[in-house]
Design goal:
By secondary structure, this protein is an alpha+beta fold. The protein has three domains: 3-204, Rossmann fold (3-Layer(aba) Sandwich), CATH 3.40.50; 237-297, no CATH class; 300-388, Translation factors (Elongation Factor Tu (Ef-tu), domain 3, Beta Barrel). The protein has eight helices and 22 strands. The protein has helices spanning 3-6, 23-34, 74-84, 94-110, 117-136, 179-182, 194-204, 220-230; strands at 14-18, 38-45, 87-92, 140-142, 147-152, 157-162, 185-186, 239-243, 249-253, 268-269, 278-283, 290-294, 300-310, 320-326, 332-339, 345-353, 362-368, 374-382, 387-388, 391-394, 397-400, 404-405. The strands form six sheets. Strands 13-16-15-14-17-18 form a six-stranded antiparallel beta barrel. Helix 2 crosses helix 7 (194-204) and helix 4 runs antiparallel to helix 5 (117-136). The chain is globular and about 75 Å long. 37% of the residues are buried. The model is unreliable at 2-6, 53-61, 388-398 and 401-406 (pLDDT under 50).
């Protein structure tokens, strides 16, 4: 946190904090309030039928999606703000959530591509917070994300570093935040462990302060049913399940929208199909065929990214050693990045991974600082391309090998 921000006690600097039922956002507000900021709590309700200040949210057809961003009880957030002595405002923002999160996820799912809704949700929330800050005359915005904002005197621009604890780090959600928002963003939890934040919430004995659950959002049966109810049947193409290596049909499925690259195939395999952990490796969008392979046979060594946004200090003229995170996984992977034209790049991993990453998968690129800390260099999204390592000849016929990379 910059020194100018720590001088809040000399002059009441107003900051709007995005508040949910999570302990993370509430501890962020608590810490800023203790540092002397004028804190204003803001809650965006992303449910189709929002709860009232004194009631629990009621169920609705759209709420069947059970997304994590829904606020279960505004009464508890209002009670927290009263205890802290800060003002609280709530806004119904379902239209924005539907347009920028739900509809985007539906579009990607119909293309059998990956679109983690948490990245879209973080982008939407920061955009809404920034707009409300302008409307309310606030100087800064804040959230409970675990990351750190810094300012470069060389480029006169802001950039992100990973949180001190890699298990808690959430810098990947903020990797593409534009400068106009990053310059106003305060992240009080960047130097803390999640366990320390939980202890602060427990000591304060706040009602309803929950530990954030990071389970799948907009996934599973509820989202599949939502798509079936809201998308034209002509777009939900069914077809056969086919072995990738020999083009043998081994089952059927009820729609490409049910399939995810690199994940377990969803469908009905014939009784004669040998049991195994089969995952989707390719699809044919014209005839609806889904191609599968055994999970143990899939390896990734190279990742091609497009829609790449890089920090101003990035040197694009030569390959660079980097570390990446894939989606929201705390696991890191080392590799070499080769910059290409049109905001794209190729990452060659030091060690191959026994996974497949579909188009749209978010990849955050880091450079390692002295002491082992990570600084966000940029972010991009996977462009899926299958390439065979070699061709085996058996009985004078070309046969695809099982191990392949993209």
């Amino acid at each position: 946190m910059k020194e100018v921000r720590l001088k809040a006690k000399e002059k009441k600097i107003k900051v709007v904090v995005g508040l949910t039922n999570s302990a993370d956002s509430q501890v962020a507000a608590y810490l800023l309030n203790r540092q002397g900021y004028e804190v204003l709590g803001i809650t965006f309700q992303y449910a189709a039928h929002p709860s009232k200040l004194n009631d629990h949210a009621s169920a609705s057809p759209t709420d069947e999606l059970t997304h994590r961003c829904n606020i279960d009880n505004l009464k508890e957030i209002k009670s927290f703000c009263q205890k802290l002595g800060i003002q609280h405002l709530g806004f119904h923002s379902f239209d924005e959530f539907r347009d920028q999160v739900i509809d985007t996820c539906v579009s990607f799912r119909l293309k059998t591509a990956e679109n983690n809704p948490c990245f879209n949700c973080a982008k939407l929330t920061l955009s809404l917070l920034s707009q409300k800050a302008k409307d309310l005359g606030a100087d800064f915005i804040s959230t409970g994300h675990y990351a750190k904002v810094h300012f470069s005197q060389t480029t006169k621009s802001y950039f992100l570093n990973a949180a001190n604890e890699m298990e808690s780090d959430q810098s990947f959600y903020l990797a593409k935040v534009p400068q106009e928002i990053l310059s106003k963003l305060i992240l009080p939890l960047g130097d803390l462990r999640r366990s320390e934040v939980r202890k602060i919430a427990d000591r304060q004995n706040w009602d309803g302060a929950e530990e954030r659950k990071f389970s799948d959002c907009l996934e599973g049966n509820s989202f599949d049913q939502y798509i079936q109810k809201n998308v034209s049947r002509s777009l939900l193409k069914s077809g056969n399940i086919v072995f990738y290596q020999d083009d043998l049909s081994v089952g059927t499925h009820e729609g490409l929208h049910l399939q995810n690259f690199g994940k377990k195939v969803v469908g009905n395999l014939y009784p004669t199909t040998p049991p195994s952990d089969y995952v989707v490796v390719d699809v044919n969008r014209y005839n609806g065929n889904v191609y599968i392979e055994k999970r143990a046979n899939i390896f990734c060594k190279r990742i091609f990214l497009n829609d790449v946004a890089l920090r101003k200090t990035a040197v694009l003229t030569k390959p660079k050693s980097i570390i990446i995170k894939i989606e929201a996984s705390p696991q890191t992977h080392e590799g070499i990045i080769h910059f290409k034209n049109n905001n794209s790049c190729l990452i060659v991993l030091t060690k191959r991974i026994n996974k497949l990453f579909p188009s749209g998968t978010h990849v955050t690129i880091y450079e390692e600082l002295i002491g082992g800390r990570l600084s966000v260099l940029g972010s991009g999204r996977v462009k899926y391309e299958v390439k065979f390592l070699n061709i085996k000849k058996e009985n004078n016929e070309n046969k695809k090998v099982l191990d392949f990379e993209f």
